[in-house]
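Q: I have 438 residues here and want to know how they pack in 3D. Can you give me a structure?
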Amino acid sequence: MTLKKPVSRHGVVMAVSMMKDEAPFLLEWFAHHLSVGFTDILVYTNDCTDGTVEMLERLEELGLGHHRPNVIKPGGKPQPSALSHAQEELLVADADWVMVFDADEFLSVNHPSGHLDGMLDDAVAQGANGIVVTWRIFGSGGVVDWSDAPVTEQYTRAAPPLWHMGWGVKTLFKFDPDYWKLGIHRPSIKNKHLKDGFPDTVLWLNGSGQKMEDYFKFRGWRSIRRTVGFDWAQMNHYAVKSVESYAIRRLRGNVNNKADKYNADYWALQDRNEVSDTRILRHAARRAEIMAGLLQDPVLRELHVAALARVEARLVELRGSKAYAELRAGLIEAGKVPITKVEAKPPKARDPAKTALVDLDQDGDPDLIVGKYADGSVSGFAGRWRLVLPSYSSSGIGKQVQAPYWPHSTFTCAPEGKKSPMPSRFQRRRSPRRNPPW
């Protein structure tokens, strides 16, 4: 079977991802996303030691994908680094539609057509240029032992669709690098186009083909009750897989598992198995066909077999360690936590004296909320413009100050929380539309 690069009537439909040591799962992930309709797949990698790079390089040689090294600057992080590279990548710039997602995420096209082309047909017919796809969180399904069976077939139990903790999104959208900055969950409109009428041209749909609310053009990375939908698409998120699969990742490179108080909490959050969801299996036959074709290539087959053998050898080593035994037992116990008791990692408590709420009171203009930096300066936002107020200390609470670029406005400092219970460090409400002098 000779595989050919897919084509789409919607042009180049590109998946952009970033990976580190994903060789055991890579061919399934790749085959799956070719099966749902992506014409191009671009993957950035960093610090791989398990054959991931060699697999991607071979896929590129076969004309089925693209690979780029994720060169990370000192102090940088892999995901932002990869997105920075992708922003400048000509392949991405030439794409018509782009979607950024991770190696543990598999797009399920629930649209009646079962294919991205059909879904995009209906989206374009509505004048849409983006589709916001919400996560479904898939757990271990009680699977403990490692298996090389397909991820999408092994793990078919998930959190309830209306469980709001699992409503992160990924966005498929019409990309133009002059207007958009790539993001992990959704792109952002570049500042220079925020007020030139471009936002009025943005029309995004949710995962059921319904119009997204206007606020999402500018902010947000999660669905809310009014915008969540799965009739057209969902992003299956397999963050944990089996206990042993997770253990390999957590103990990678060292059998001495470092103490991590979030191990069990993270597992409890992601190991949700309350309902069955097998919709992604509509893609299984085509995915299996494509994967079989990939494995006919002797280079890919050798790399794939070696990756699986490496996992088995690693498990033999880990199973004899105390760290593995403790982690395995802890994860199994954490999996018993009911969904009603699960909590996301809580934010760190903040000292109210280190932040401030600035109350703008002129011509009925609403409030602005700002944060205080260590150097004493106070920063906030008016509309999309950033304010930096004169230095103040807790003794200045209640005093009035003037903002440099709003000389006719009076600001009153008050302790955070006195006027608003919202917890974010930087918050804002509708604010004055005055243009700064720059």
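Q: Anything worth noting?
A: The first helix runs from residue 23 to 35. The chain has two domains: 13-317, 352-415.
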